[in-house]
Amino acid sequence: MAELSNAQPSEIVLRLAGVQKYFGSVAAVENVELAVQKNQLVTLLGPSGCGKTTTLRMIAGFEFPTAGQIVIDGKDVTYTPPNKREIGIVFQSYSLFPHLRVSDNVAYGLKRRGVPKEERVQRVREALQLVDLGQFGDRLPNELSGGQQQRVALARAIVIRPKILLLDEPLSALDAKLRQRMRLEIRHLQRQIGMTTVLVTHDQEEALSMSDHIVVMNKGNVEQEGTPSSIYRQPKTSFVASFIGETNLFKGEIVHAANVDGLLVFRADCGFEACIRKADNLEPGRQLLLSLRPETLTISPSQGEAEASPNALRGTVAGINYLGARTVFEIKTPTRDLMVSVQNDAGSEAPVAFVEGQTIRLSWTPDACQIVEIN
Amino acid sequence: MQNADRTIASPVAPITRASRPFLDSRHLLAVANILVCSFLLAPILIVIVTSFSADQFMQFPPSGWSLRWYVEFFNDRRLMDGLLLSLALASVTAVVAGVAGSLAAFAMTRMTSRFGGLIHSLHTAPLITPGVVTGLSMLIFFSAMGLRGSFTALLIGHVVLSIPFVVIIVVAGLQSFDKSIEEAAISLGASRPVAFLTVTIPAVKTSMMSAAVFAFLNSFDEVVVTLFLPGPRTKTLPVAMFEYIQHNLDPLPAAISTVLIAIAMLVVFVTARFGTIGRIMGQRL
């Protein structure tokens, strides 16, 4: 948690310590450590089967850990049943009560808590207004669109003022346009009411755009955690580098030849050399991977002369994908293909600058080079 | 850069109405449907028409019209007792089989046992067991129990025969029920029993109602097994009618049949007012 921007000591609302979950002999979660600070939105990100959903279900209390401890607000709740945890949860399938009107759906948790009728009506109205559904209280869930149902589910979860809000792939059932809008809306709402939130998703864009803190999970373990930009810019393993965003990975090793600027030299197995920034864990001789994000590569016409200089490669343009805001080039080099993403200038026809089959030169700066562990 | 040549004309001729064959699959479907519906409905229509006969004997078409056979039916003490017994038996069967079958369905959709499939098959076994076999086994069983000829024996028999329908319908309803709905209720503070009562039951209420209606109708027209459980208090209307036909050839049974059809339809339409007709008739509303 060292990368957190605000240095003031914040209160930790949720803590998972050495949490494991086995189904029979199969480990769904091998070892998860997690600390969520008050009012933060923390995302558990990973492919399906990485253990993120099981972790969420353990936080909610629908599954009990095989080992480890879960603490909410300083209280050990490892084996507390879900209805005693003061948690709001939004499921992927909305899970609204089909036989109850929208306002009764939202009022359900308040009724269970014995909130008196007047206060209940007031709080339901406020919650529905918060999600912009003030006029929809009398509708049945199946009379609403997917996005509206999602907002009702959100209102139902937050109206009980839970200690933690859990979002289980909340946007995956929505179409792309609506998903983008809901991302912003949920993020805005979460900030506005100050709600400690744990989001589970496999969508890296969703994680990058919504989170204060991302926990990347793989095979039941935490692979890396940090702020969205640190996860994207400094992936520590090849799994994180390739799961979050797109990247070009090169196997190779550090060859001991620090030059005047304090740069190390990485020699890729496919032949080229790259100057990289010095770091602690980069002793020579170890097999490592070099990650080059497509947008950090510069493409320029080949001069034809020998281009053996470091941080450069020669290749030919094998494909041009014009995507509006940017163009993605597929570049063929003698040993492998890689991807280069170029921002298009407004008003100029960028892709025309290169044609398929053209020989070009790729180059990059030492800052673009990210060394990651093989896994 | 591709240079698409657009001068080549499409070689495929446009499909016109005229090029469709005169008798295509849609016509065949329509004909098949009409035939099937006729086979299903014609016997019922013949019975209803015959029930209004003025003739002394059952014949079709009747030579004259009257309501005399209805009058005869409603004045026949034994048949009226049978009708009341049938209505009472079917109602109790609907409640008992509806509750027991629904509970079994809940258990079956939630259990993780690898015997789940077997248990489900056992619950639907009475559907495929030949009626005479079930009847005989019940006769032997209830004789041994000293319950032969009692209302209790009849009720148990009908409940057994109706449970498969209830199980099949309620299991289908529960399978389309998203379990996370119940989890949502629990996360909002409901205990498991409260979540079950306030969320799960209301969500599958429609299937349970349909199942009970099926149990009612199934019991109401049951003959085979009931015949095996004879006794002074086990003469349901279908059995009384069956016995009547063996000695008489007048159109009275047609009148009884028409009343049976009317009651069945009444039950279906009354429950339809509670929104279950769609499920019963297998249609979407």
TrEMBL record, chain A:
GO biological process, one term: quaternary ammonium group transport
Record domain ABC transporter: where: 14-244
Enzyme Commission designation: 7.6.2.11
Keywords: ATP-binding, Cell membrane, Membrane, Nucleotide-binding, Translocase, Transport
Transmembrane residue ranges: none
GO cellular component, one term: ATP-binding cassette (ABC) transporter complex
A Pfam family it matches: ABC_tran
Function: Part of the ABC transporter complex PotABCD involved in spermidine/putrescine import. Responsible for energy coupling to the transport system.
SUPFAM superfamilies: MOP-like, P-loop containing nucleoside triphosphate hydrolases
PROSITE patterns per record: ABC_TRANSPORTER_1 (PS00211), ABC_TRANSPORTER_2 (PS50893)
UniProt GO MF annotations: ABC-type polyamine transporter activity; ATP binding; ATP hydrolysis activity
Catalytic activity: ATP + H2O + polyamine-[polyamine-binding protein]Side 1 = ADP + phosphate + polyamineSide 2 + [polyamine-binding protein]Side 1
Oligomer and partners: The complex is composed of two ATP-binding proteins (PotA), two transmembrane proteins (PotB and PotC) and a solute-binding protein (PotD).
Name of the protein this chain belongs to: Spermidine/putrescine import ATP-binding protein PotA
Family listed: Belongs to the ABC transporter superfamily. Spermidine/putrescine importer (TC 3.A.1.11.1) family.
Highest taxon in the source lineage: Bacteria
Main enzyme class: translocase
Lineage, opening ranks: Bacteria, Pseudomonadati, Pseudomonadota, Alphaproteobacteria, Hyphomicrobiales
UniProtKB/TrEMBL annotation, chain B:
PANTHER family: INNER MEMBRANE ABC TRANSPORTER PERMEASE PROTEIN YDCV
Record-given protein name: ABC transporter permease
GO BP annotations listed: transmembrane transport
This protein's UniProt keywords: Cell inner membrane, Cell membrane, Membrane, Transmembrane, Transmembrane helix, Transport
Superkingdom to which the source organism belongs: Bacteria
Pfam families on file: BPD_transp_1
Species name: Aminobacter anthyllidis
Keyword Lipid biosynthesis in record: no
Main location: membrane
CDD domains referenced in this protein's UniProt entry, alphabetically: TM_PBP2
Sequence similarity: Belongs to the binding-protein-dependent transport system permease family.
SUPFAM superfamilies named in the record: MetI-like (SSF161098)
Organism placement in taxonomy: Bacteria, Pseudomonadati, Pseudomonadota, Alphaproteobacteria, Hyphomicrobiales
Keyword Cell cycle: no
InterPro entries the UniProt entry points to: MetI-like (IPR000515), MetI-like_sf (IPR035906)
Protein topology in the membrane: Multi-pass membrane protein
Subcellular location field: Cell inner membrane; Cell membrane
GO CC annotations, alphabetized: plasma membrane
Regions crossing the membrane: 28-52, 83-106, 127-147, 153-174, 194-217, 254-275
Residue intervals of the ABC transmembrane type-1 domain: 83-271
